[in-house]
Amino acid sequence: QKEVEQDPGPLSVPEGAIVSLNCTYSNSAFQYFMWYRQYSRKGPELLMYTYSSGNKEDGRFTAQVDKSSKYISLFIRDSQPSDSATYLCAVGASGTYKYIFGTGTRLKVLA
Amino acid sequence: IAGITQAPTSQILAAGRRMTLRCTQDMRHNAMYWYRQDLGLGLRLIHYSNTAGTTGKGEVPDGYSVSRANTDDFPLTLASAVPSQTSVYFCASSVGGATDTQYFGPGTRLTVL
Fold first, then answer.
1. Chain A partners of B107 at a C-beta cutoff of 8 Å?
2. Could you give the CA distance from residue A19 to residue A73 in angstroms, rounded to a whole number?
3. Residue B97 confidence (pLDDT) above 80
4. B42, A97: Cβ pair inside 8 Å?
């Protein structure tokens, strides 16, 4: 079993839709949870960073962590064509220098 | 310009040749990383460095070596390239460990024939 599982998509939605992107992880030692956005032929850029369970909101983006289920989510409200990208989840643990990344979900928002 | 630069942007290389991918950051971050990204496999850590003078192995280190002579530079060397090393390579850095945000460079697209 992979340490982090993520549906690769692609996921196509109409402009204005609410998008839900999800990852599951296997190791309860993970305490830090990140979402990165990667445009085609570019490096990943950090979108959201959360610690432990709960929600974190930043504009149209909400990151949600449920440690009891080992499940993390990213919600995008009022999705825009500019949100079309690959979204990568990542997890980390204290005392390490390593993130574990999901394989990424490709999102396309149709105008 | 603050951030991470990588060179070259892309490269086609004959199998068996030696190649060094360059990575430089100007954020004075302690930790640096090399990842490869392959379709369906995501980002996989090759090597990392906690601080200048120290390096560590990641998930897929075989066939690659790194050095960290100073804070800013973290070159990745393929001693004898093989076609399975065809990939997109990303360098990243962070202030400290896994509790800190990793910032990524633009990537190097490498094709080994």
1. 41-43
2. 10
3. no
4. no
Indicate yes or no: CB of A43 within 8 angstroms of CB of B102: no
In this structure, the strands spanning B108-112 and B10-13 are: parallel
Backbone angles phi, psi at B84, to 5 degrees: -70, -10
Task: Give the residue among A104, A6, A48, A11 at the shortest CA–CA distance from B88.
Answer: A104
Of A49, A98, A103, the CB nearest to B40: A103
Please give the Cα distance from A16 to A9 (Å, whole number).
19
Within 8 A by CB and 6+ apart from B1, the residues are: B26
Distance from CA of A44 to the nearest CA of B (A): 6
Q: What mean pLDDT is reported for chain A?
A: 92
Place of tokens 């990542």: A90
Which residues, including other chains, have CB under 8 Å from residue A77's CB and lie 6 or more apart? A18, A60, A61, A62
Separation between Cα atoms, residue B65 and residue B74, nearest integer Å:
10
Q: Taking residues A28-57, what's their average pLDDT? A: 91
| Residue A82: strand, helix, or coil | helix
pLDDT of residue A7: 85
A33's tokens:
């949870």
Q: Do B42 and A104 touch (CB under 8 A)?
A: yes
Nearest to A20 by CA among A89, A67, A69: A89
How many other β-carbons are positioned within 10 Å of the β-carbon of residue A37?
20
